[in-house]
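Please fill in the sequence for the structure shown.

STRUCTURE ENCODING:
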């Protein structure tokens, strides 16, 4: 698969959003987060999203230049309306509110509703961790009914991600961040465009049989043609049996219901809702026992004997490794994704020739 240097890809993405109508600062921010997801290895939340984002912008379903509006503002609690702004704009604003409240109160809860797609939730846990805070995030995507609960073949949940971030002394924060479906929908999109294939049991057909075929999500599609999530007869499967399905339900109820975003339902406008808790470990643990205990325990976990051919990794390690490899070797972009990006760029009036420099392939 051809690769593109991350800096070139980011500059390209920024130009597309600017030409599509976003201010320069916002364009560059969206581009930075999207390419950051590619660098972390989550191509599902990277530049593959650009055509969708630009379409949503053109349709007025996501709005440039928004600021969160406080619906509830208490010392340790906020409910914020993202007013359908870009998630890459309103989510960091919501985290900043949580960080400020947590710094004064030791503990804060912030609910964000009506946000555009917030991308990789790890970005928001990392922002909190950079401020020294532990954070927990329950997220839903109203309007995006994609995932079948445990033992069901019918869509009821969004891919409802869950994320926890923990700052650590003298090492990068630990961030666990995943969709509560077996795979994020964007991974099906990437697979449908000739990228990494899905695991054999990522989807379920109307007959209840497990499958890896993205057509169960999008129906029949042409190479280069649109992928319409309403056309598939099947569903993504929730992860982790009844336990993962239960966590998905909680993400819907807290990230969707409690935040005021609305639980996932067909016919609803797309919006991410995020219910976040922020904890200041220095207030909870003034004797500072936790940092050393966390590091000791992580080392104990890492030292566990791997199964043959296996390797014990901590959350965040695969992303850190991929980032290093892709910063050096470029971000792989499938031909079909590439064509879709060029088509979107042309559609917003960009002249493209000579703008991108291919980099050597990644690993
Ligand atoms: P995934 O299945 O790759 O799981 C990622 C998590 O598992 C990470 O914390 C990673 O460090 C950890 N991990 C991976 N391999 C590991 C190993 N071998 N050992 C230990 N830990 C390991 O991710 P996903 O479910 O495909 O989600 C991808 C991204 O999609 C996430 O960033 C998520 O936030 C995002 N997402 C966003 C939305 C939205 O609406 N905005 C919806 C769904 C998913």
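FILLED IN BY: designer on duty
SEQUENCE:
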């Amino acid at each position: 698969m051809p690769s593109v240097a991350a800096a070139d890809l980011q500059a390209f993405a920024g130009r597309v959003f600017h030409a599509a109508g976003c201010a320069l600062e916002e364009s560059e921010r969206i581009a930075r987060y999207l390419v950051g997801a590619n660098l972390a290895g989550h191509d599902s939340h990277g530049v593959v999203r650009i055509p969708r984002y630009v379409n949503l912008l053109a349709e007025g379903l996501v709005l440039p230049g928004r600021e969160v509006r406080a619906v509830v503002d208490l010392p340790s609690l906020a409910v914020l309306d993202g007013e359908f702004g870009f998630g890459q704009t309103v989510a960091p604003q919501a985290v900043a509110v949580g960080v400020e409240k947590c710094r004064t109160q030791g503990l804060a809860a912030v609910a964000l509703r009506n946000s555009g797609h917030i991308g990789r939730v790890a970005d928001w846990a990392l922002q909190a961790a950079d401020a020294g805070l532990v954070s927990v995030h329950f997220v839903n995507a109203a309007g995006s009914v994609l995932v079948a609960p445990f033992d069901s073949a019918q869509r009821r949940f969004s891919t409802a991600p869950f994320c926890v971030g923990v700052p650590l002394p003298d090492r990068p924060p630990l961030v666990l961040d995943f969709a509560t479906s077996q795979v994020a929908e964007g991974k099906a999109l990437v697979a449908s465009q000739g990228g990494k294939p899905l695991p054999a049991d990522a989807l379920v057909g109307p007959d209840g049989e497990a499958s890896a075929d993205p057509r169960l999500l999008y129906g029949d599609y042409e190479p280069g043609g649109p992928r319409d999530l309403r056309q598939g007869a099947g569903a993504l499967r929730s992860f982790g049996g009844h336990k993962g399905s239960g966590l998905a339900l909680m993400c819907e109820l807290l990230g969707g219901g409690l935040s005021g975003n609305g639980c996932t339902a067909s016919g609803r406008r797309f919006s991410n809702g995020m219910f976040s808790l922020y904890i200041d470990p220095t207030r909870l643990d003034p004797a500072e026992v936790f940092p050393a205990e966390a590091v000791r325990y992580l080392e104990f976990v890492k030292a566990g004997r791997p199964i043959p051919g296996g390797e014990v990794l901590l959350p965040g390690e695969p992303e850190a490794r991929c980032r290093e490899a892709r910063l050096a070797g470029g971000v792989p972009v499938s031909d079909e994704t590439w064509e879709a990006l060029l088509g979107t760029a042309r559609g917003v009036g960009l002249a493209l020739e000579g703008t991108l420099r291919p980099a050597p392939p990644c690993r």
